[in-house]
Design brief:
heterodimer; A: mainly alpha; B: 287 residues; mainly alpha; elongated; transmembrane (chain A)
């Protein structure tokens, strides 16, 4: 088992190194001089030179790469050009709304998807199953930003139940922040529930016909106990994986949803960085989010090793 | 080979079998209507997409303007038809571009044992980036234009295709007819093109349909954020983005383009689901 864990760790480190390299390459594929692009056509040669120095664009490509890797290892992603603060600080300042948005959306998605998926599989082919499958497919086809706008229109403007945008001032307690978070979390959670519903249904269908489920039934065990205790427990690994993957997808959805609802999170930061061509911020956000994704995947793999002794890498 | 042969024989009737499934048929019909409407836009659109009319600014849906007018008095139905052209073209171009990269990477990783590890790790690394975020970063680096949106989304979705093609190639590589071709001295590129590539078309078709759907959603997202195609070009995403500013007075401005996205993506998913069930029953069980 230790060997398997070490193997996986090595694989993770290789992927992480590649992620770091890919991010380095992305910023370098900018046609022309990124410093000149950032400063616009009116910038003087001196300003451009200064910015090049700041961005670490001087020296050979190998020197640039070495400096960049050294910075990444120290969690130093450079300085934001427009915010005048270190990228790490800018990301940390905006992590909270994104964190809560992701967590709440995931909770909503799971709370909808698990029961619907389980019941769909249990009543396979029924009206409920067909309606749930159709709804899941519909939810997967709706752009979350559009759903967010419809929510704002109806629940915030028309009914006045929630805030149309924002996150409250600094120091607002989390309970009050719900006023701002409920709509975006539902917009994102509903759309994301589709994938989890379909996976839950498929995994449950897989195990509901297995021998041990039949055995449990033949022993006279209560029907729901069989479904929830015996079947669900065994269907849980693929379901957990897809929930983990959804968490990563949610970060992607958060980029757009935060913009719709004016939440001052990482997504909003990235979009404004792109519009202002603030490359260090884009680079830092990409690294942190992709790095988190790789770590989450690694964590899920390790969990498998612990839960299921048959899994070997 | 026995396993592959029926799949190949059945491919000519795929369309008729697909039409036989009720849900797929609905998908095909909706998709055909949307594609035809986009294609025939210059003939069926009641107005010019750029015809301004300050007098009929922000009119709600009415007989003269089926879906209402926008802030500059332009007919929304007309603009939606033209926007459909861009959105569908971008979506299709993304499928083609990502297929090219995906096929090259997938075949390389699946067929050549030595290259499998490095290429697969690169695929893993690319898949670590959330799609919209990577697309945003790439468009930021390349510059905002329709072509660059296609390139960016193509790069984003290529690893998914590469993974599927690699998996199929790994199986096909070991089949007797590939071994026989090798023994007969058939050059590797010919084996790859004639024997391997031909047999990975099924998973390619299934994934391609889903990527088409995702690309339409992603393009709309990028355009909505203002980091994709220029707002002057009507796409469903840019129309929602503009409509958002007039949400209180003219909710139809953002409602109808959004509904067009939902219908298009939904119909692509219905067709994709049908294709998957017919061509790849193993996958159908998983999802």
């Amino acid at each position: 088992m230790l060997r398997a864990a070490l193997n996986r760790l090595f694989g993770m480190l290789v992927v992480m190194a590649l992620v770091v390299t890919v991010v380095f390459v992305i910023v370098r594929v900018t046609p022309g001089d990124p410093a000149a692009v950032m400063l616009g056509p009116d910038a003087s040669a001196e300003d451009i030179e200064q910015l090049r120095e700041k961005l670490g664009l001087n020296g050979t490509i190998l020197e640039q790469f070495a400096n960049y890797v050294a910075g990444v290892l120290r969690a130093d992603f450079g300085q934001s050009i427009f915010l005048g603060q270190p990228v790490t600080q800018a990301l940390m300042d905006r992590a909270e709304p994104t964190f809560f948005l992701t967590i709440f959306s995931l909770l909503i998605a799971t709370a909808i998807a698990l029961p619907v998926g389980i019941l769909s599989a249990y009543w396979r082919g029924s009206m409920f199953d067909q309606a749930a499958t159709a709804l899941a497919m519909f939810a997967a086809s709706v752009p979350s930003f559009w759903l967010g706008l419809l929510f704002i229109q109806f629940f915030a403007v028309h009914l006045g139940w929630f805030a149309t945008s924002g996150y409250g001032g600094p120091g607002t307690p989390l309970f009050e922040r719900l006023h701002y978070l409920v709509l975006p979390a539902f917009a994102l959670g509903l759309v994301s529930s589709a994938l989890i519903t379909r996976f839950t249904r498929a995994s449950m269908l897989d195990v509901l016909n297995d021998d041990y489920v039949r055995t449990a039934r033949s022993k006279g065990m209560g029907e729901w106990r069989v479904v929830l205790k015996h079947a669900l427990k065994n269907a849980l690994i693929p379901i957990l994986t897809v929930i983990g993957l959804t968490a990563a997808l949610l970060i992607s959805g958060a980029v757009v949803t935060e913009t719709v609802f004016g939440l001052p999170g990482v997504g909003n930061l990235v979009v404004s960085a792109v519009l202002r061509r603030d490359y260090p911020v884009i680079q830092g956000a990409l690294l942190v989010i992709a790095g988190l994704y790789v770590l989450v995947n690694f964590g899920i793999d390790m969990l498998y090793l612990l839960i299921d002794p048959r899994v070997r890498y | 080979m026995a396993a592959i042969a029926p799949a190949l024989q059945s491919e000519p009737n795929i369309l008729s079998r697909l039409v036989g499934r009720r849900t797929s048929l609905i998908g095909i019909i909706i998709l055909a209507i949307i594609a035809a409407a986009a294609l025939l836009a210059p003939f069926i659109a009641p107005y010019s997409p750029s015809k301004l009319s300050i007098a009929s600014r922000l009119h709600g849906p009415e007989m003269a303007h089926l879906f209402g007018t926008d802030d500059l008095g332009r007919d929304i139905f007309t603009r939606m038809l033209y926007a459909g052209r861009t959105s569908l073209t971008v979506g299709f171009a993304v499928v083609v571009f990502s297929s090219i990269i995906g096929i090259v990477l997938g075949l390389t990783a699946g067929f050549f044992r030595r290259l499998d590890q490095p290429v697969s790790r690169l695929i893993d690394a690319m898949m670590a980036f959330p799609d919209i975020l990577l697309a945003i970063a790439l468009v930021a680096a390349l510059g905002a234009s329709a072509t660059n949106v296609v390139i960016a989304l193509g790069i984003v979705y290529a690893p998914r295709l590469a993974r599927v093609i690699r998996a199929s190639t790994l199986v096909i590589r070991e089949l007797p007819y590939v071994e026989a071709a090798r023994a007969l001295g058939v050059p590797t590129p010919v084996i790859l093109l004639r024997h391997v590539l031909r047999n990975v078309t099924s998973p390619l078709l299934v994934q391609g349909t889903f990527i088409f759907a995702n690309a339409i959603l992603a393009e709309a997202g990028l355009s909505f954020l203002g980091v994709g195609i220029s707002p002057d070009t009507p796409t469903w995403g840019t129309m929602i983005s503009v409509g958002r500013q007039y949400m209180d007075q003219a909710s139809w401005m953002m409602f109808f383009p959004g509904a067009a996205i939902v219908l298009t993506v939904l119909s692509l998913q219905l067709v994709g689901d049908g294709l998957r069930d017919l061509l790849d029953p193993r996958l159908a069980k998983d999802i």
